[in-house]
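Example S7 (structure tokens).
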């Protein structure tokens, strides 16, 4: 399994979700699973893939409004401090390293936006409304300079932008938020709580995620191999924690499961028969202790599942899924490991193995860490967005030919992150905020468009009043409930189940955003 730094924020993604696989997995007992969920039989295959950007991605440097009115306020707010983070306008040529930019007069270095060239224009299929109180006559948009592969997917109609998404309990205006006249999600600036609210609808300590709750309703579609309904290739995740569905944690190596380390072929303390004896002991259910018997039952289930999944990906279409191409950090030019792409390779192999396992519906979780860019944003975020872009393009290509079949229409991939970041710079980065913009990719996606209301940009200053920004933070205009319910409806979750999974959904209209 890919290693990650286990800080408190990272541990939160593990909260409530207990794995059946991996070293030490027998200790991960889900003793409280209850309720046998059922789902109508599905004849086709569909999978939902969550790409979580841990730390809070800066949406204002990811999807940008480039009309002159919006750009002017954006550029002035971010072109300050000792390390300005404002990107360069559309069409700006790259300034060679060491030379002064004709636009800003600053000397270009690898970590200055002047060296990267202008943002990449995109043309949404539907026009966004003109913000009140601005001089704009039409809204135009662009992506970060290192999101070239994402722009290509957008232009090809297989990727959409969903604007200004955030955790909400009910529709909330700037005035209502400032006056606290409506209920507000807990601890908006807390990584731990907002990761939890995004993934489960509840604050830190929640036990069931909405991906796991969807898996609960879909288990009946997957027959005997329902254990593979919810799979993470990034460690256990609250998003996939269900009441009935046990999430399966897959490795990013050649085989998706190591099961129990000591049961692997070889010797145990020098004994050739030790492995077999050990495996027999840990599966013994004849103890007088109920706990020991439950422990042995989980061991048995882990070993059987490992054998099943490893066999399924070892031949056929799953074995032919190509590895991601080499990744080069777009800022430093150094070769690096793209862990997100490696996770998505595992997901692609597991999707390819789905028919052999008789699977019809699956939910996956992958993640990319380190988006908490309080400082050094010009160095960190471009690299992270470069990894995201390469990973999405790789995954799209891998699904285009799975054993001769194009599965892109059967898989929908979406991004998530606990919150956005402040509109103005803090000198070299951004701080915690609220709403942000996200990507949805897949053959079933109505791509090439921006869904939801792209916000007015700019802080209240010099007589300008922004209706969409409280202080330095965007007030979300699209709720996570709407975002998730739209994805769940495509996956085949029944409307009544969506109303249970997203209890605040009834507060929002429309419930389905129509992007897929």
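Recovered sequence:
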């Amino acid at each position: 399994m890919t290693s990650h730094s286990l800080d408190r924020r990272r541990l939160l993604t593990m909260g409530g979700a207990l794995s059946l696989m991996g070293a030490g997995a027998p200790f991960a007992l889900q003793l409280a699973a209850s309720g046998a969920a059922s789902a109508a039989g599905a004849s086709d295959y569909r999978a939902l893939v969550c790409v979580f950007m841990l730390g809070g991605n800066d949406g204002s440097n990811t999807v940008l409004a480039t009309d002159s009115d919006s750009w002017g306020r954006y550029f002035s707010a971010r072109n300050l401090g000792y390390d300005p983070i404002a990107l360069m306008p559309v069409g700006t040529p790259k300034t060679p390293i060491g030379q002064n930019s004709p636009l800003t007069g600053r000397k270009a270095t690898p970590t200055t936006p002047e060296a990267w060239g202008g943002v990449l224009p995109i043309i949404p299929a539907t026009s966004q409304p003109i913000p009140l109180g601005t001089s704009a006559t039409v809204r135009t948009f662009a992506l970060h300079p290192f999101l070239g592969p994402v722009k290509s997917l957008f232009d090809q109609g297989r990727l959409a932008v969903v604007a200004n998404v955030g955790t909400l309990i009910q529709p909330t205006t700037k005035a209502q938020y400032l006056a606290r006249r409506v209920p507000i999600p807990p601890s908006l600036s807390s990584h731990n709580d907002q990761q939890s609210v995004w993934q489960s609808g509840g604050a830190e300590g929640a036990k069931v995620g909405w991906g796991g709750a969807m898996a609960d309703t879909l288990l009946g579609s997957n027959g005997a191999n329902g254990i593979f309904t919810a799979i993470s290739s990034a460690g256990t995740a609250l998003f996939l924690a269900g009441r009935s569905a046990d999430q399966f944690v897959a490795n990013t190596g050649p085989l998706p499961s190591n099961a129990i380390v000591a049961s692997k072929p070889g010797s145990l303390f020098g004994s050739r028969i030790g492995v077999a004896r050990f495996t027999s002991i840990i599966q013994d259910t004849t103890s007088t202790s109920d706990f020991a018997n439950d422990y042995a039952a989980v061991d048995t289930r882990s070993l059987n599942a490992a054998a099943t999944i490893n066999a399924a990906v070892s031949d056929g279409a799953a074995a032919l899924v190509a590895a991601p191409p080499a990744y080069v950090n777009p800022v430093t030019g150094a070769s690096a490991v793209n862990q997100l792409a490696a996770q998505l390779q595992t997901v692609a192999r597991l999707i390819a193995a789905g028919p052999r396992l008789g699977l019809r519906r699956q939910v996956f979780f992958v993640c990319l860490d380190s988006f908490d860019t309080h400082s050094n944003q010009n160095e960190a975020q471009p690299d992270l967005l470069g990894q995201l872009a390469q990973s999405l393009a790789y995954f799209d290509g891998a699904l285009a030919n799975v054993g001769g079949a194009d599965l892109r229409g059967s898989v929908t991939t979406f991004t998530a992150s606990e919150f956005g970041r402040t509109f103005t710079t803090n000198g070299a980065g951004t701080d915690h905020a609220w709403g942000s913009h996200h990507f949805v990719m897949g053959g079933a996606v109505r791509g090439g468009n921006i869904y939801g209301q792209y916000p007015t940009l700019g802080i209240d200053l010099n007589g300008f009043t922004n209706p969409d920004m409280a202080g330095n933070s965007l007030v979300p205009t699209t709720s996570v409930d709407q975002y998730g319910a739209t994805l769940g409806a495509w996956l085949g979750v029944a409307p009544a189940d969506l109303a249970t999974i997203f209890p605040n959904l009834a507060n929002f209209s429309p419930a389905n955003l129509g992007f897929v």
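Notes on this example. Confidence is low (pLDDT under 50) at residues 1-6, 8-40.
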